[in-house]
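Take just one protein record:
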Amino acid sequence: MTDAASPGDSHDSSKTHDDVRRLTAIALLLRPMGEWYVRPVILALAMLALISPAALRRSWLWNALALLIAVRIAGDWPLADNHIYLLAYWCLAIGLAAAAPWPAGALERSSRLLIGLAFAFAVIWKAALVPDFLDGRFFRVTLLTDPRFEDAAVLIGGLTRDQIRANRDALAAMPEGAVPLEPPVIVETARLRRLASVSTIGILLLESVVSVVMLLPPYTTVRVMRHALLLSFCAVTYAFAPVAGFGWLLLAMGLGQCRDQWKLLRVIYVGMFVLVLFYSEVPWAGLLADLVL
């Protein structure tokens, strides 16, 4: 079984790929980006894509979005979130695919390669280029200091909110040259350390496997694994990670590897898109922690 659509299948995935474009446009509207001179144009083009079926399929619209996102990245250089770079590549891929002889195959192939390479580079960075990920320090510090992960530290890590506030005070940066009179006291539970260890190993392994199956030759078993692993990654990661925009982007790209006849899988992708929206807008972990603790 080949990965890309054949010339005779060039129109087989038109409905699916329209949905891919719509989800990408919705993600752009849900997370506005850029300065005043770029944000309204991005929003206007995303809105146009949603209300005009003709514009939705136009190469110029997606190429323009890719260019505008690149301008946004340049304006915030080098502080733009990682997934914003991937979003620019993805919009460009949609634009190029729209002008290709076989759009469905081009978009499917671009989706697979972009996800595979993005995950592969993430694994290389975590495993070989930074000293504080494999030993668990990244997640230990993040869980203690990042307010966005406070609910996870309470619900799973076993800390109280008072302990978290005390830890943040203890770890807060001091004025240059200042030295505390006494060493700061950091409270870490055994559950928090286990959470940091499991998160470190689990994310590294899952990202590694996703990158491999996306880049492997496209056999049927591999195709099934691609969707299962990508959907599992999004379901677990974005339950706690506060980067819903990245999750929506991955899900739109994963949907780009579906065919019209795979109706159940297409529904699952859209449902997962909504679930990530739920994760981002409802403080479910905090509500659950307040209820059970």
Summary: The first helix runs from residue 14 to 30. The chain has one domain: 7-134+192-292.
